[in-house]
Amino acid sequence: MLAAPSTTHPAKAGRDMRLDLARGIMLLIIFVAHVPNNLWADYIPARFGFSSGAEIFVFVSGIASGLAFGGTFLKKGFQAGARRTLKRMLQLYGAHIATLVVLGGGALLIDRVTGSNAMAMRYDLEWLRAMPLEGFVDYARLRYVPSFFDILPMYVILLALIIPAMALARLSPMLVLGLSAMVWLMMQVAPVHFHGNPITGGNWYFNPLAWQFLFFLGFSFGVGWLKPPPRKITWLVAASVAYLAASVPLTFWGIQNAFPEAAALNKLIYPADAITVLHGTRLIHFLALAYVAYSLVDPAAAWLASPKLAPLYRVGRNSFGCFIAGLGLSMAGGVAIDFFGMSWLVAHPVNITGIALLLLAGWGLDRFNGRKPRRHVPAPSRIAEHGREAAQIA
Q1: Backbone region of residue 251 per phi and psi (left: phi > 0; alpha: psi in -120 to 50; beta: other values)
Q2: Most buried among 184, 223, 257, 303, using CB within 10 Å?
């Protein structure tokens, strides 16, 4: 549903605990998915459907960006909004560089100590290992994006697109959404790829020209261009559940191993670059999943205020810091599995320890950012929180 024209300001709202909860759960799942040779990863939600945690990450970040940066554009003017957006871009770009120095450097140090190139091959760090200066320069220029180092570069580009989007929105917010949709459709028909590896010739795993559509869908809700749809529309819930159920046999490895026909159908409808270009099967799956969750979880539900969920809320509030922490923990988990062997006896302590440390990281980042412990109080009609905290999670 369309909202009021772009000249209106988003109404002040409280923090939507459902978003923090979804993001916290998603970051734990991403950690499990990123641990190499992890037996737990065979049973994460992405194995039972087309979409994964990446869609949640981008969509919710779009909502937060609409609240934080879009709200600044509307309330304080174009220049103030552009400055705030550019500041956040520089912060994330700095985090992008630091991630390579700390985690990439640590991975190559492990290779040097062990006398192997296992970590360099696993994370596409061969170019950095062979030509450190050229590799670092290419990484800084976003011309070299190793595996698992690809979320932050994509998000820097997505933030950069906010500035021209807000300029275009002066004419009509629907022009922004229309152009965004057209670019996404172009990427499905004739994709334009970003080069990401000088050695292999590989491209960016997440192409921002495709993923910007999901980002701006979330952004539109956050900035107020779109209103949330009504909850529990019977036919829409039924259609969403039907699509989600139909995707299970097409994606779950257990069913595909037992029924080769399911695997053959998956190859027919799901292209090799489906993640890179955000293929329609993934986009529709995520939107269906989001609507079902949106319909089932009442924002005023009392269980959302349970203190037992506080650790997940802390991870969700500190999404980017916890994402980087999770990347380091997943690398460490992979090293542990390499050393002790791939088995359930090893997988359980590796995953449990990593999840516990990620929850601890959420607590530490909360304290570092000066957030005092507080009891969540659920309230209806909340989308997310404005101001400083929205900027931190966007």
Answers
A1: alpha
A2: 223
pLDDT at 378 over 70: no
- Is pLDDT at 371 greater than 80 in this prediction? no
Tell me if residue 82 falls in helix, strand or coil. Answer: helix
CA distances from 63 to 28, 68, 178 (A): 20, 9, 18
Cβ-Cβ contacts under 8 Å for 91 (sequence gap 6 or more): none
DSSP 1: -
Report the sign of the C-alpha dihedral through residues 381, 386, 389, 390, in that order. Answer: positive
Tell me if 99 sits within 8 A of 327, measured CB to CB. yes
pLDDT at 320: 87
The DSSP secondary-structure symbol of 48 reads G
Q: Work out whether the CA dihedral 225, 233, 18, 35 comes out positive or negative.
A: negative
pLDDT tens digits, 79-138: 999 999 999 999 999 999 999 999 999 999 999 998 889 999 999 999 999 999 999 999
Instruction: Give how far the C-alpha of residue 377 lies from the chain's centroid of Cα atoms, to the nearest Å.
Output: 26
Query: Residue type at 371?
Result: R
Structure tokens at 349: 């302590």
Give φ, ψ of 203 to 5 degrees.
-110, 175
Amino acid at position 354, single letter: G
pLDDT, tens digit (0-9, with 9 covering 90-100), for 26-74: 999 999 999 999 999 999 999 999 999 899 889 999 998 998 899 899 9
pTM for the model = 0.88
Closest CA to 7 of 272, 223, 321: 223
Contact 390, 64 (CB under 8 A): yes
